[in-house]
């Protein structure tokens, strides 16, 4: 039997499948449902252990912390095989695990979203949610750089979670859950997100819905923290000219930290992302760029659209 329980949440494009197997003894003449659930929990944890085995430089305490929240990291799984011989229940699963995000949480290999230090995580209140959800929320929010579990950040983020069980879909043999999350940092307006998910049991459905809600919330926060200025350049070809412009902006304009390709518009204009932090504004940057001397390729500013967008021709 193969049962698809959940897919990786939006923004978890780097999640990869890991296999795991678990067993549990069946008491003589006893119920088989409990042992099957126990075997499933062990199988999901085994898959997480296999994923963690690929990481280097993780201290035992960090590894133990992640395994203690195994359900939060393994909510997107498929049951590949489920059987029992009357004495032992056996379950084999394939789990989508976002190992890069776990590595970021434990090793710190990645910069915070938008280059901004996130607030410390304060109170997490959960209404009508399972016991595993609040602990899982703390780990997953830290992994997404929405909040830090420790550190020197002075701002504090308080979190409210609300869960709604949607019951079982009998044809699919899956349970549905809706999770809403609201975050509040000081006097700032609250940020909210809601997501729906289905899984083989109510707990896994809650955790998968939480992952999806956090993925959406993470994108909202990323956009709010993004301090880069977009430079849209019409008639940008050949590409060698764009590379010269990138180098000139990055090396000649004080306050610019990095210049990277941000995309191409449907009309063929190139977008450069210029990161200078919150102190660099488009009007000032436009004046400095027009003063650049690039042999054979003068830059002409067409319009400063707002504090974070500039249109130019090159």
Detailed description of the structure:
A hairpin with a 5-residue loop joins strand 10 (258-264) and strand 11 (270-275). The protein folds into three domains: 1-98, Dodecin subunit-like; 111-225, 2-Layer Sandwich (Double Stranded RNA Binding Domain); 229-313. The protein starts with a strand and ends with a strand. With 314 residues, it is of the alpha+beta class. The longest helix is centred in the last third of the chain and has 24 residues, at 202-225. Helix content is 32%, strand content 33%.
In short:
The chain has helices at 33-52, 60-68, 70-73, 99-107, 131-143, 202-225, 239-252, 282-290; strands spanning 3-4, 16-25, 77-84, 88-97, 120-127, 156-169, 174-185, 191-199, 229-234, 258-264, 270-275, 300-306, 309-313.
SSE arrangement:
Elements lengths: L2 E2 L11 E10 L7 H20 L7 H9 L1 H4 L3 E8 L3 E10 L1 H9 L12 E8 L3 H13 L12 E14 L4 E12 L5 E9 L2 H24 L3 E6 L4 H14 L5 E7 L5 E6 L6 H9 L9 E7 L2 E5 L1
Helix pairs in contact: 5-6
Structural class: alpha+beta
List the helices and strands in order. EEHHHEEHEHEEEHEHEEHEE
Q: Would you tell me which CATH topology of the largest domain applies?
A: Double Stranded RNA Binding Domain
CATH architecture of the largest domain: 2-Layer Sandwich
Strand order of the largest sheet: 10-11-9-13-12
CATH class annotation of the largest domain? Alpha Beta
Low-confidence stretches: 1-11, 109-114
Q: Tell me the overall shape.
A: elongated
Largest sheet: 5 strands, mixed
Number of strands: 13
What share of residues are in beta strands?
25-35%
Overall mean pLDDT score?
82
The separation of the N and C termini measures 60 Å
User: How many domain regions?
Assistant: 3
Oligomer: single chain
Please tally the helical runs, counting DSSP H or I stretches of 4 or more residues.
Answer: 8
For CATH, the homologous superfamily of the largest domain is named as: Ribosome hibernation promotion factor-like
- Rg of Cα set: 24 Å
Share of helix among residues?
25-40%
């Amino acid at each position: 039997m193969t049962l698809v329980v959940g897919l990786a949440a939006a923004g978890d494009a780097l999640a990869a499948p890991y296999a795991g197997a678990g067993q549990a003894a069946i008491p003589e003449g006893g119920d088989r449902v409990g042992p099957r659930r126990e075997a499933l929990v062990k199988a999901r944890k085994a898959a997480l252990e296999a994923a963690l085995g690929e990481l280097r430089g993780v201290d035992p305490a960090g590894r133990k912390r992640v395994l203690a929240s195994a359900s939060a990291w393994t909510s997107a799984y498929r049951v590949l095989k489920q059987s029992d011989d009357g004495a032992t229940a056996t379950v084999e699963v394939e789990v989508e695990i976002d190992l890069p995000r776990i590595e970021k949480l434990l090793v710190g290999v990645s910069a915070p979203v938008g280059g901004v230090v996130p607030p410390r995580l304060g109170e997490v209140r959960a209404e009508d949610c399972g016991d595993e959800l609040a602990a899982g929320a703390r780990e997953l929010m830290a992994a997404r750089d929405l909040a830090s579990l420790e550190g020197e950040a002075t701002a504090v983020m308080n979190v409210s979670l609300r869960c709604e069980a949607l019951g079982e879909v009998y044809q699919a043999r899956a349970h549905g859950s809706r999770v809403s999350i609201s975050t509040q940092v000081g006097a700032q307006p609250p940020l909210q997100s809601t997501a729906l998910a289905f899984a083989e049991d109510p707990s896994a459905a809650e955790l998968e819905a939480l992952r999806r809600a956090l993925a959406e919330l993470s994108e909202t926060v990323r956009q709010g923290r993004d301090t880069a200025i977009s430079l849209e350049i019409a008639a940008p070809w050949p590409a060698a000219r764009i590379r010269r412009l990138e180098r000139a902006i990055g090396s000649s304009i004080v306050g610019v930290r990095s210049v990277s390709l941000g995309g191409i518009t449907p009309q063929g204009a190139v977008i450069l992302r210029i990161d200078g932090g919150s102190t660099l504004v488009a009007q000032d940057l436009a004046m400095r760029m027009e003063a650049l001397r690039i042999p054979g390729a003068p830059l002409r500013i067409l319009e400063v659209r707002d504090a974070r967008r500039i249109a130019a021709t090159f």
